[in-house]
Amino acid sequence: MKVFRNLLDGIKPNFEKGGKLEKLYPAYDAFETFLFVPDHTTNEGTHIKDAIDLKRTMFMVIVALIPCVLFGMWNVGYQYSIASGESMTFIQQFNFGFWKFLPLIIVSYAVGLAVEFAFAVLRGHQVNEGYLVTGMLIPLTMPIDVPLWMLAISVIFAVVIGKEVFGGTGMNILNPALTARAFLFFAYPSWMSGDKVWVQNASVDGYSGATILGDLASSMNWQSLSGQWSISDMFFGTIPGSVGETSMVAIILGALILLFTGVGSWRIILSTFLGGYFMAYLFNLWGYNELMSTPAHIHLMIGSFAFGAVFMATDPVTASQTNKGKYIYGFLIGVFAILIRTFNPAYPEGMMLAILLMNIFAPLIDHYIVQANVNKRLKRATV
Amino acid sequence: MSQKKEALFSKKNKKLITDPLDDNNPITVQVLGICSALAITVQLKPAVVMSFSVLFVLSVANVVVSLLRKFIPSRIRIIVFLVVIATLVILVDEVLKAYVFDVSKELSVFVGLIITNCIIMGRLEAFALGNTPWKSFLDGIGNSFGYAWILIAVAFFRELLGSGTLYGYPVLEKLGIYNFGYENNGMMILPPMALVTVGLIIWVQRIRNKKLIEPK
Fold it and tell me: Which domain holds residue B158?
């Protein structure tokens, strides 16, 4: 630690007002505050003394994502070994997935941070730390085979159009990670859906790499699928899918970390699951097609429902801010996710679209919650 | 009427043409005519045809309304505008059907919808009704060019990135870019990307032209 401190203090004069690299101060500042708790304080008004700032909040989310990352890496290798028929040890499977997944993370961070730094330097503000989490979420929501240049383009689109045009971290309307995924989904659909993209090397004869949702959407019967995948497969996550979304265990671990540190909102997570269960249960009663007659609790375990509910819906910037609003926001995400899934098999990823839709409505929900409170208190006023 | 005669291309008249290209662009500054900018910019060809149609309709309608401006009772002026525009649009539609049938089919309902293009109605109401025919003509030309270059710029990017062609010519295929694993961006064909592209153009325009930035 001492080494870093000395190094940073040594080069600091270059970046301060009048120094040679004055223009690059935002970049320097980003590194310094990343490594050390900043020592500047607010000059006026009340302020809370707390070591936790945005950077450290974001860091907790990264910690919460680690189970998903590790499990996702292993699952990539595991699915590959099933598809190709190669027998691999646990370590080999993990290694295989690790080297497949690492380039995605590197590209996501390199491109995203480059855009962030460019904007920070051009606009002369601090580097927004929001990308720390986004950069990890994006590769986790991708199929493992996605070409790196497509990933890079979608990251640029998400950071520029999804965030910077609105004014940077904290001002964005849409969740940037989902913006990236939605962009890829509509721009290059052949890489984002179907049954060949979810498992490395899935073109091996006679092997279907389709996700469970994909199979259900092509009106495969639920009973016949439950022969192929047991409920424990779904719970532990040894099924094909986007890298981070398959394992309920890893997601629950992440959720516990988020809830324990108070970074994620339990109201949103809870109400999202309730909304999804409610809608899926209604459809069970109707039972019009295979997706509708799939048991409600299964709906919550397949696809990206759980991952989205825990890591995407709880994004503090794009979610509702009021407590009541959070219940409504989460509940509607769950409802819409299942609704889109069942009614439009072309979009099995209802969760992505549902969260993006509710991102847009979140400020409206907040507005009415706040307004209702104002009206209630006005009625009480006796002036 | 002892007014001094103005030169045909006086400074003021030139401004009528150049203003709508940048400072007062109908799409990026006044935000009019957005529907057609979204709907027919998937490819260059319809965008070009649309631009010419609007050029014809707007400049002629401007002149006609300007000639009639002293006889139009102000209470029914919108109806009169509509009659003038509708007549011209039907003319354009017939010509397109006769000479470029395939494009006409592609544009389908959007030729007819020129009638409701707010740029035309807006110029008639705001300019032609109070100015001489020659000035109105210049204003019509200027505004249609302002409309056209945005349309064509948007269509250029959408066709190049979305279908890999330019005016139907497979540019990217000839360049051999697909061999490197490049793929067309399906999102560019969808209307949202037209909106984003227009937004990006507005962004670039406002960086270059500081006059457009509202004082805080």
Answer: 25-210
